[in-house]
Amino acid sequence: MTNKPVFHTILAGRQTISVADTDHTSTDDKESVCHDVPGLDYEEVAAALAGATDVVLTADETRHLLKDHPQLIQQLAEWGVDDTELLEQLVNILATDLIGERWPTYGETEIDYPAFISRVHAAAKSKGYEIQAD
């Protein structure tokens, strides 16, 4: 396994995102690249996700979950996790990752919300995540 710093500039749409530090780890020809955007606290993002979904992720798990969403990462760094629109995007990404469905919006009557939550929590447990309510 090698662990070496790599520095990048990421283009997200018309914005250039400065990457403070990139951790590059290679194990058995599998690579993981994590981009840390200045001003983004992944522990705070994980706490916001846990507060909204009861699914507890570590900062690293949250970073991995968001790795394909550079625009959202930049917006979170700028506006924070208290922005309701960004929190909605976060829970949608988590639900899609876990069960392949978006998180229901407030007032959706055709969704069996308790059954949806049960499926999300079961999928989270199967991935090794803790559930806050347990």
From TrEMBL:
<protein>
    <submittedName>
        <fullName>Uncharacterized protein</fullName>
    </submittedName>
</protein>
